[in-house]
Amino acid sequence: MQLAACAAAALHFRRRLFAQSGLVFRPLARATVLPLDDLSTAWRARSFVADGITLSSAATPNQPIRVSGTIVRIGGAGGGGNGATPTPDQFNAVCLRCPHEGCDVEFVRDPKTQPPAAFAELPSIPTEPVFICPCHNSTFKASDGARLGGPAPRGLYRFDVTAVTAKTVEIGAVEEDVLLFAM
């Protein structure tokens, strides 16, 4: 019976890995579990540190790695009504390192509080929360980590929110490329 449950869980996890717009996720060394109370409303953010293992093809293979991240509640309270438990798709978790030169990005809940020069490359000041790299002003959407502007070659590296309970949010995997190099 346990073997069947494990197989079903593995199949579900595999489907989640490939359902995310072509990104390939790898399991963390252990899941990072955060209190749901810390993310009780939309656009609440919380920093965390996740433990992974570098890939066998990395410059330093099969070594422990710690990756700093931020998780943001992008959906409203509850799970869509009636106080239900939220779902994993109501959260976005990203690596804090900018893919340009590795500076730590900052979460900006209200972009209007930033100097206009921070968004000089964008057609307008964003209306929703963003991540901004203070080194070269690369800007990323808080809702999915996508690049909005700046010299970064891509969006932020992502974590996979694998489960949400009535009390916790679990981050169980990270984008594969993160495990190729020390962050």
Query: What does the overall shape look like?
Result: flat
Oligomer: single chain
**Would you give the CATH topology?**
Rieske Iron-sulfur Protein
Order of helices and strands: HEEEEEEEEEE
Structural class: mainly beta
CATH class: Mainly Beta
- End-to-end distance: 40 Å
Helix content: under 10%
Q: If you average the pLDDT, what whole number results?
A: 86
Stretches where pLDDT falls below 50 for ≥5 residues? 1-20
Major sheet summary line: 6 strands, antiparallel
User: In the CATH hierarchy, what is the architecture at level 2?
Assistant: 3-layer Sandwich
Strand content: 25-35%
Q: What's the gyration radius in Å?
A: 17 Å
Arrangement of strands in the largest sheet: 1-10-9-4-3-2
Short key terms for the protein model shown above:
single chain, Rieske Iron-sulfur Protein, disordered N terminus, 34% strand, mainly beta
Account of the 3D structure:
The termini are far apart. It contains one helix and ten strands; from the N terminus they run αββββββββββ. The protein is 10% helix and 34% strand. The strands form two sheets. The chain has a six-stranded antiparallel β-sheet with strand order 1-10-9-4-3-2, covered by helices on one side. The chain has one domain: 3-layer Sandwich (Rieske Iron-sulfur Protein). The protein has one helix at 2-19, and strands at 25-35, 45-53, 64-73, 91-95, 106-108, 130-132, 139-141, 147-149, 158-164, 168-175. With 183 residues, the chain is mainly beta. The model is unreliable at 1-20 (pLDDT under 50).
Topology, element by element:
Blueprint: H1 2-19, E1 25-35, E2 45-53, E3 64-73, E4 91-95, E5 106-108, E6 130-132, E7 139-141, E8 147-149, E9 158-164, E10 168-175
Antiparallel strand pairs: 1-10, 2-3, 3-4, 4-9, 5-6, 6-7, 7-8, 9-10
